[in-house]
Amino acid sequence: MKTKIKLHDGIVGAAIATSVMLGATVNPLWLYVAGGIGALMVSSAFTGFCPVYFILHKVMPGGAADHVER
Questions:
Q1: Nearest residue to 37 (alpha-carbon basis) of 13, 60, 53, 66
Q2: Which pLDDT does position 64 carry in this prediction?
Q3: Does any domain span residue 66?
Q4: 64 within a domain of the structure (yes/no)
Q5: Is residue 69 included in any domain, yes or no?
Q6: I need a labelling partner for 15 at 20 to 30 A (CA). Which of 24, 31, 42, 62 fits?
Q7: Residue 46 belongs to what domain range?
Q8: How far apart (Å, rounded) are the C-alpha atoms in residues 16 and 10?
Q9: Residue 32 forms part of a structural domain
Q10: How many whole angstroms separate alpha carbon 36 and alpha carbon 26?
């Protein structure tokens, strides 16, 4: 379970960092990607659905406790 959490954090962190770097250097419109990821993270706190965890569960099937308890 910790592997999925670490992968999730790494994927989301890399996406946000990349978006902010592109927003600062290429085009400020890239900051909408970081904002969208942030909004998705907030909504997943209430709904319990996270697309990254959904994909990780398909790629790395685990036991019954392979998601974070909410």
A1: 13
A2: 47
A3: no
A4: no
A5: no
A6: 62
A7: 2-59
A8: 10
A9: yes
A10: 18
Between CA 34 and CA 57 the distance in angstroms is 23
pLDDT at residue 42 above 90? yes
pLDDT of residue 40: 94
pTM for the whole thing?
0.78
CB 68, CB 5: distance < 8 Å: yes
- Share the mean pLDDT of the chain: 87
Q: Are 66 and 48 in contact (CB under 8 A)?
A: no
Kindly tell me if the per-residue pLDDT of 65 is higher than 80. Answer: no
In the three-class reduction of DSSP (H, G, I as helix; E, B as strand; rest coil), residue 63 is classed as: coil
Task: State the Cα–Cα distance between residues 39 and 58, nearest whole angstrom.
Answer: 23
Per-residue pLDDT at 1 exceeds 90: no
Task: Output 45-52 pairs: Cβ under 8 A, ≥24 positions apart.
Answer: 45/70, 50/8, 52/8, 52/11, 52/12
